[in-house]
Amino acid sequence: MDQVKGTPASGLFGATLGFFFGFAAVALFGPTAAKFKDILHLTPPMVGLLVAMPALSGSLLRIPFSAWVDTTGGRKPFLILMLIAIVGLLGLSVVIYMVMFNNLRSGAYGFLLLFGLLSGSGIAIFSVGISQVSYWYSQKKQGFALGAYAGVGNLAPGIFSFLLPVALHRLGLFNSYLIWLGFLIVGTILYYITGKNAPYFQLRQKGLEPVKALEQAKQSGQELFPSKSLIESLIVSAKNLNTWLLVILYFTTFGGFVALTAWFPTYWKSYFGLSLVYAGLLTATYSILTSIIRILGGAVADKIGGSTTAIISLTVMGIGALGLFLAKSIGIAVASEIILAVGMGVNNAAVFKLVPKLVSSAIGGAAGWVGGLGAFGGFVIPPIMGEFVAAYKSAGYAKGFIVFVVLAVVSIAIAYYIKLKAKA
Length: 424
Prior knowledge:
Blueprint: H1 8-24, H2 29-40, H3 44-60, H4 62-72, H5 75-101, H6 108-119, H7 121-136, H8 139-153, H9 155-171, H10 173-194, H11 199-205, H12 210-219, H13 230-238, H14 241-271, H15 276-304, H16 306-326, H17 330-358, H18 363-375, H19 377-392, H20 396-399, H21 402-422
Helix pairs in contact: 1-7, 1-8, 1-9, 1-10, 2-3, 2-14, 3-6, 3-7, 3-14, 3-18, 3-19, 4-5, 4-7, 4-13, 4-18, 5-6, 5-7, 5-10, 7-8, 7-18, 8-15, 8-17, 9-10, 9-15, 11-12, 13-18, 14-15, 14-17, 14-18, 14-19, 14-21, 15-16, 15-17, 16-17, 16-21
Domain Major facilitator superfamily (MFS) profile: 242-424
GO biological process, one term: nitrate assimilation
Family: Belongs to the major facilitator superfamily. Nitrate/nitrite porter (TC 2.A.1.8) family.
């Protein structure tokens, strides 16, 4: 028993801290998109692709790294992803320096795409932490624990969306990126100090045989245990229909969250003509509210069930998306943004309340598929919305929200199916 370091609370704290700083690695892209657009003369689809690049790697890397937790615990995958993100943010800083102070233009866009892709590994941390926290907590408490982990961690884009315009104004683009690089390095060090694997993985690392490690971990309070290797975890979870239904639900609201965190600064600036500071403030409002409400959503899911929570929250999201689609005034648009944030945040919590319940034999693999392919929405959606702008000019910024209306309707039907079949 004394061989195990940490408690569920400390395990949750370390994972949340690491995720917060990891997600901060990509918080720069949305607010600085307008700067890149002006400096490099980018088209709307090019801007859409640029802000989506971190979401591409951040979604796909979740799949293998989350499944890896089932074999080694979360610390090693967590730290590797943070180191990759540091390389990406360092590369972005160098490119920005060359563009601004050495007048580099040729190939700059390609390098921004490449290093943006690497920095997206900070988003991939999410699924690793989900698996890590899931093994620390009993199923009765997982809704709140996972909601707190994701909610607090997801605050990073909102907080930095608010701070970045101020930093850009006072410090400039290059210095702002250097400061964010420093944040990420500090966060990596803090996670290295505070991040702890669940008891079973600590005991296995100390050399205990699986059976003995299992027995001692149970005495420490651990309830869930990995039953598969990395590849087996991915295969078993992939064969479970519930995994793919949850992927769609998460694509809609977390993929949508990542997409809109990057898209809203451009939307507010280009559609309503707001300054970068006010656009950042409204984006931060959306991002922070979505994150905070996720904590409450986890507690609600613990009480009324994940699928019921999903049905209600997705309906709220659909109303918010429809409001943004129809909005002609900034007042209606802001109100709709708030409604959208509430629906998305609560559903994000509901989905991961359902993962351990519906795919209990391969939590890491399922969390990888759901978190990875679900977050892929952050890559897919911005370029689609960019096409609406290309086709309808300024009006396209509002028309593009029809994408979220459609996703909400489809997801409600899926959540209702889960409720009927799984009684979850």
